[in-house]
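pipeline/complex-builder :: batch 7 item 3
reading input block
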Amino acid sequence: MLDFALLVQYGPALLRGFGVTILCWGAGCLIGMALGFVLMLLRQLPVKPLRWIIRAYIEVIRGTPFLIQLFLLYSGGPSIGLRLEATTAGILGLGIYGSAYFAEIFRAGYQAVPKGQVEAALSLGMSYGSILRRVIVPAMLVSTIPAIVNMMAILTKETVVLSIITVPELMYEMQTMAAETFATFETILGMALFYWLLVEVVSRLGRRLEARATRFLTHASPQGSSSETATARA
Amino acid sequence: MKFSVIIDALPYLLGAAVTTIWVSLLGVLLGQVIGVIVCVARQSGGRAADMAGGVYVSFFRGVPLLIQLLLIYYMLPLIGIDVPPLVASIAALGLASGAYVSEIYRGALNAVPHGQSEAALALGFPGQSIWTRILLPQAFRISVPALVNELILLLKASSLISVVGVAELTRTSQTISASNYRPLEIYLAAGVIYLAINSALALFGTLVERRLQQA
């Protein structure tokens, strides 16, 4: 079985790799969410060609393998003058990949905001900007938390694919270690257990967050209006 | 951009796409079998079976597919089964898919009204035929959209088996672009082929769904 001396020897590299994994994941999720949110907003504009383009973008990203997208960005990029380092390409790739899914998640959340709330805000004289910020986005975020968490767990798993374009993340370091020590099977088994745990932790934290954010849906809140509409939907 | 590059590579890419398609189909078929068995075992096999099934589902949904693939690829020789990469890949895709499929069926079974199996019991159906004649056919019908979606996901996931050297679409694109130094054109072409296959699958799914609704 796995020799503990090996862990001491390769510990720093593995730890560094884990750092890169977390960096890619975190930055990828942020870019994905930001881009997805912008795409969702642009889709609400009454400009038909823009909607088609965004829809095509989402369909293309969701219809092709993540690995092909990475290869296009990392190996194909230099042909059009886009020279990226592996890690940058990995983060950008994760972000682009995630953005299509997040855009759809946010769109569903946007549509689920009760029309009456928006109309009420309009009749109170709120501007579109503040309706978005104070009415739509909060309601949208709460209703889409499960989907967002799920997508973040999926992106956790996708970071492993980055090792194929030589991003020095955990999987890559692990494969280096496996190749140097010949303890291939043990290392991969260890890695499987580690990722199993990691994805479980992400999902658990997500469920906690969901419970925390939706507390007002089940308990009667002092502001009758918000709890009323919310429970009616739930 | 040089389109002649794509045209030259197209026969190879299409040939590789065929490999991608049938590897994914075999993976999905294996996943179906495993998924149904796991689902039925978890529902009617007692607590031990339910727990074992739960661990299986949790593991194969929680661990990245690439790691599962490498695990199976390196594990089989260790326990004395020496199989070509292709077989290990199909096994990995099937095992991963089985975990998702069993959850799809679980959801679908919950959607079959409880009164139906009670009615079958009252009519004296033996336990086995309640499954094969009442529950599973309906669960299948309910889960068709999810299953087609699963097929599309698996087809995309099958690009990962390029890592163990199976000459499917992704691997072939890698090989070609390594020899002609035209990665942009080749990967674009590969992407378009994946997109075309997935769109066709989605269309097929809609047709099957419509057909089943008529029944």
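note: The longest helix of chain B spans residues 3-44.
queue -> next item
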